[in-house]
Structure prediction request, 503 residues.
Amino acid sequence: MANPLFDALFQPLEQRDSCFLLTQDGQEITGRAFLAMAARYAHTLRTCGVAPGDRIAVQVHKSPEALALYCAAVMTGTVFLPLNTSYTAAEIAYFLGDATPAVFICDPQQAPKLATIAAQFGATMLTLDGAGRGSLADQANNQPDTAPVTACAGDALAAILYTSGTTGRSKGAMLTQHNLLSNAFALAEEWRFSADDILLHALPIFHTHGLFVASHVCLISGATMIFLPGFDTTQVLHFLPQATVMMGVPTFYTRLLDEEGFSEQATAHMRLFVSGSAPLLAETHAAFAARTGHAILERYGMTETNMNTSNPYETARKPGTVGRPLQGVEVFVTDPATGAHLPQGAIGMIEVRGPNVFKGYWNMPEKTREELRENGFFITGDLGRYDEDGYLSIVGRQKDLIISGGYNVYPKEVELILDEQPGVLESAVVGVPHPDFGEAVLGILVPRPGQSPDPAAIDTALRTSLARFKQPKALVMMEKLPRNRMGKVQKAELRAAFSKHFQ
Ligand code: MLC
Ligand code: AMP
Prediction:
């Protein structure tokens, strides 16, 4: 038996003596060198006693070594579990407790803080920093440059990616080899990727967008990546002339538009800009086209499903829409109450079925049953409408979710902590428009009678429990929250009342 994901994505690197990854300091890593590094990591993981199906949890800065670690997980038939670098120790404890990984790899600077947590859940801890140093690299140094590849079936788990939950508890989406591979093929074809492409990769690699969408289409088509540690406008402008494609969240594009030097000339050699993870405003699309002559291609996806729809490569890309279903993917708009299919033009729940759709939530059979129908349709929580040309628009979300700069924040998780703060009677967290992040987290506090909560003290308390991007960008006080007759907080009213807060 083979290992389909490895065979399609990584095996071809064995023959590749040309550059696969170009780093910010000009280092060129060939396909062969990358694969040798991954093989050394695979040996190291095996030395730690990992077996197929074990989880490998990883909270490290983006680097070629971090990507090689993902490849090593695939080689060993283990389940890759990447974690946002801004998660706090409290958040990490939840993930390690839930997923019980065999190995946990973190940044050496965080190691003292996280060692007890790793030990508590029985994970062997290794370290890797942004420059590729740490105990993983030390142990891998003496290992051979080739490693056996564990055979596994297409429906074997390849990754678990945590996505926030409405109740405040994150859910681990279980993705199979076939989920990832089918989507990589569909996207590479849809977006016409070839070995001549050079992708400017400035996304984090702990989420679907940067790890799967961006890296997989390059791997499957033999393309090259300019692999930057993160999005820095100056650096992106510097490397752009060497690239042919860029992928990003809308914040990338609004930040580029803020730069005077960003022009038609600076993007003349580019063939494609892709946007996703959050809504791209039609006005951003128009401003980008006016400035550069490029129509950004918007697509729609999520952790549980990979990518579902895309605007077309050849024909019209419609601003404010996310295009049409990808090859092999069914996307329906349904009545949220009955699940019945709705006709074109009607607004309803977006449901998705296809080889891209995940297997369920780790350790959460009930949640899986709630969101994944027996007939294979996943209930996305996004509300959409098809136009007369079959293009889908996302018109809202039924799930109480904020998307800030492409990162998801579920209000409940923040409210639970705000409610515990001294002087706070209750709280509501909403997303309101923000010029840089698209949407930003706003915390609304109702003080206890006669008390005044201290925003600075609350800010400090939040820092220890919540990743920075989840923390409210502002806290405001209200005497009481608007509620309907059932007692439910009227979030739409709050969003409207504070819609200009960051403008
Ligand atoms: C950073 N901060 C954020 C933030 N990113 N706050 C809210 N939302 C965010 N997205 C915090 C920082 O910690 C900092 O805190 C302050 O805000 C300002 O930071 P910055 O320096 O301006 O931010 P920067 O480091 O430049 O990061 C912004 C960003 C980054 C947009 C480049 O957030 C990013 O790379 N986003 C991409 C997310 C992504 O890949 N999503 C895909 C999910 S997959 P302070 O106060 O300490 O200074 C998915 C499926 C799909 O959704 O369809 O793709
Ligand atoms: P995540 O849970 O991080 O995978 O985020 C997935 C969610 O991001 C989706 O359910 C959508 O709400 C949102 N999303 C992704 N792409 C787009 C897009 N192009 N336009 C609007 N929302 C999007």
Residues 203-204, 207-210, 231, 249, 251, 276-277, 301-303, 404-407, 437, 468-469 surround malonyl-coenzyme A (ligand 1) (CB under 6 Å). The mean pLDDT is 97.
